[in-house]
C-alpha cells in the first residue's frame, strides 16, 4: 500500500472506531499506531508514541489548560454565577423578556472567567431556569436560553478551544484570546436582540400567557444598587486581573492562568464556599478535565505525525487546488463538514481530527490563521447545541433533573440561538476584520 492509501484507511478506521463507541483519543492513537507500523515498523511506531508524548506535553504553554480549568471550577464553587445573574436580573427588570437578556449577559461575564461552556450551562441551569419559569417563561425557552448562551464560554476569552487551536496552528494563544473579544460580544448582542424580539414575533414561544408577562415586568429584585454592585465587584476584579494582565502583555497566558486560579481560590475562601471536601472535589474535577484534554492533544500529536508521514494532508491540498476551488468554496465546504461533525463529536475532538488536514489548505489559500481560528471555534461551538450530541443541551438536562422537560424540548428551545450562531458565522466570514482588528492592534 502507498502512503496515501494507508492514510485514507487510517482516517476511515479512526472514524469507524469512534462510531462504534471507542474513546476518541484511543481511536486516534490506535489508528495512528497501525498506520505507522504498516508504513515503517512497529518499533518506529512505538518510538513515535513516546516522542509524541514527550514533545506534545512538555511545552510550558500546556500548563495553561489545568490552570484555567481550575480557575473556572473555583469560580463556580464561589457562587459568582448567581451573583452575576442577580445583577443582570435587576438591570433588565423593566424589559419584556428581560430575564432572558439577563441570562445572556450573566453568561457572557461568567464566560470571561471560566472558558468552559459546560460549566456555564450547569451553573445557569440551577440559577436562571427556576427564576424564568417562576415568572411565566415557557420551559423550552428557559432551558434554550441557558443552553444557547452557554456557548459564549468557548468564544469569549479565556477559551479552551482557543488554546487548542493556538497550539495546533502554532499561533499565539494570547492573540487568539484577543481575537475572540469582538465576535463574542457580537454573538451576545445578537442573542439579546432575538430575545427582545421574540415576545413580539412569537409570544407563545417565550411566555406561557399574557398575565405572566405583566407579572415579570412588575417583578422586583429585593436588592439595593449598592449591594448589587458589591456582588459584581469580585468577578470584575478577577476579570481585570487576568485579562488586563494578559492583554497588556504583563502576563503570558500560562502566568495569567496561574494568577487567575490563585485569585479564584482567594475569592472562594473569602466567600466561605470552599471546605476541604469541596477543595478535594474541585481538584479532582480539574484533574479529570485537564487530563482528558491533554491526553487528546497527545493522541492528536501522534495522529498529525502519522498523517505527515503518509503525505495525506498535502495530497488533499493538491487535490483541492487542482479542482480550481476558490477560497470561499473551500471555506463553505470546510464549515459544513465541521458543523455536521459537531452533531456527533465534541468540539475539541473535531479540531484535533480535522485541523491537521485542513490547515495546509487554508495556508495555501493565504487565509489569516487568526481569523480562520475564530470561525473554526464558532463553527465547532454550533455542535454544542445541535442534535443528537449537543453536549450543552445534555448538560442542561442533567443539571435540571426535571422529567417534564425532555431533551427534545431543550433542542426546540435552543433553535433560535442556533440560527443566531449561523448568522454570526456568516458575518465573521464576510468581515474578517471583526476577528483580526484587536488581535493585530494589541
From TrEMBL:
Keyword terms of this UniProt record: Cell inner membrane, Cell membrane, Membrane, Transmembrane, Transmembrane helix, Transport
Record GO terms (molecular function): transmembrane transporter activity
A Pfam entry, by short name: DctM
GO cellular component, one term: plasma membrane
Residue stretches spanning the membrane: 6-39, 60-81, 101-129, 141-165, 177-201, 253-270, 282-303, 370-394, 414-440
All copies of domain TRAP C4-dicarboxylate transport system permease DctM subunit, residue ranges: 11-432
Major place of residence: membrane
Subcellular compartments: Cell inner membrane
Superkingdom of origin organism: Bacteria
Topology within the bilayer: Multi-pass membrane protein
Stated role: Part of the tripartite ATP-independent periplasmic (TRAP) transport system.
Classification via NCBIfam families: dctM (TIGR00786)
Family membership noted in the UniProt record: Belongs to the TRAP transporter large permease family.
PANTHER family: C4-DICARBOXYLATE TRAP TRANSPORTER LARGE PERMEASE PROTEIN DCTM, SIALIC ACID TRAP TRANSPORTER PERMEASE PROTEIN SIAT-RELATED
Subunit structure: The complex comprises the extracytoplasmic solute receptor protein and the two transmembrane proteins.
Name of the protein described by the UniProt record: TRAP transporter large permease protein
Organism: Billgrantia endophytica
